[in-house]
Amino acid sequence: MANTKLTQKRRTKHTAQQYLDIAEIRDGVVILRDGTFRAILMASSLNFALKSEEEQKAIIYGFQDFLNAISFPVQILVNSREIDLKPYLKELDVREDAQGSELMKIQLQEYREYIKELVKVSNVMTKNFYIVIPFAAQQAKEEGTLEKLIKGLRVRGGLSPYTVSEFERYKDQLWQRVDQVSANIRNLGVRLVPLSTQEIIELFYSLYNPDTARNQRLPYVEDLEIEDVRPESLAESAPTPEDTERFKTLTKTAPDPEEAERLYRERRSRES
Length: 272
Description:
Layout: E1 22-26, E2 29-32, E3 36-43, H1 53-69, E4 75-82, H2 86-98, H3 102-121, E5 125-136, H4 145-156, H5 164-186, E6 192-194, H6 197-208, H7 210-215, H8 241-246, H9 248-251, H10 257-271
Antiparallel strand pairs: 1-2, 2-3, 3-5, 3-6, 4-5
Helix pairs in contact: 2-3, 4-10
């Protein structure tokens, strides 16, 4: 039998942050790793089937006018989740035990059995509706191409992408789009509410952890202690040259203006 050498593979701890496109959530704004912004608005529902024929046509034409009025893409998200009625059934048991009237106890028992049978024959679902509005810093006209390129490299390098003044300026431009969408959708009878930072975190928490979110509520963001984990600190031992190359996109710094301009010219020459 040929001699074989067994080498112990170096284990690397990975975090969920490495696989998410979200770089930061600040002041109700989602900042992606490519430097673009997102605002998430929760929308109320509209019972289209109960409307008259004239009202249905008015809604359709109004939505058509809304699509023609905007000059940027929007994403409409429908989130369906099965309702867990176990906590509600437990609450009914508590109320039944605390009820002094025998008649009310009987009614609570019948109602609880009705809910149990309803869950058996069909899944009770809840739907939430969201509108996602994007904004890219590259769309700002007051900045040059070189500054926009450097900002994109800084975000992909894991650095803080924007200063406070830059973030506030881009946030104002994003909120102009939010106001435009809200005004047009309001004419259809649909109410829009922008999600706060806490609500956005809870939304992504429930999307990525649906089972855990049912039983474990996420604490308030002010109470969380968040540590910025660097890629080189994820390994149990010193990083190898292969790991250093693999994590280079997460740890590289922004180039100086001359280097960034050279990279930009090379890219433009290849495209042309």
